[in-house]
Amino acid sequence: xxxxxxxxxxxxxxxxxxxxxxxxxxxxxxxxxxxxxxxxxxxxxxxxxxxxxxxxxxxxxxxxxxxxxxxxxxxxxxxxxxxxxxxxxxxxxxxxxxxxxxxxxxxxxxxxxxxxxxxxxxxxxxxxxxxxxxxxxxxxxxxxxxxxxxxxxxxxxxxxxxxxxxxxxxxxxxxxxxxxxxxxxxxxxxxxxxxxxxxxxxxxxxxxxxxxxxxxxxxxxxxxxxxxxxxxxxxxxxxxxxxxxxxxxxxxxxxxxxxxxxxxxxxx
Length: 268
Hints:
With about 270 residues, this protein is an alpha/beta fold.
């Protein structure tokens, strides 16, 4: 995946969104991911380190290698981990399709929000499988933008979400990939595949999720893809802006927002 294929862009605001997302979803997505002391873990597509710092805290005795194709993201992740005093993570610029590690180099592999941006997710999983030892585990977490529903209902909000989905598709990605995790892992030759849905339900009784997820994660993500959608001619600026406003409207007192992530685990 080249830098140009990341639909959300490499802006400062996007980095903040990624950290907000990770912090808000830590319990939901990461509570059951723990690696034993002494194990070698590869995190593929670490981005700015938002998930990396959670991995390191949950598995302080593991040796984690975190790679990303973007040198700028690796630099940001390095700053984050240094400030947090993390000592069990090695960062490197790396391409999941051209891994520099030998066969069976890692005991476990972790990839979060990576496959959705790749035009060949099946091939990516096969490359990752090569560097995983026999009997080792892979954990993959992805969203599925088709799972979003909300109140008040809005056709323009649905249009704005579809524009993000179509923009990502135009760049070779798949914003609906969460529903495909099971067949993708099976087709890549992994065994004991298990996928669990992780639903985020938000109403005004959960203010931390209203702010952390509805506003700062999902709606900010849709808003971040606005310019690309306009460039691709998917909608008018006026319709997109109205749809984004309607998504923010779901974060008000009578609003409701729901979204499902999918977490897949398997063995080699």
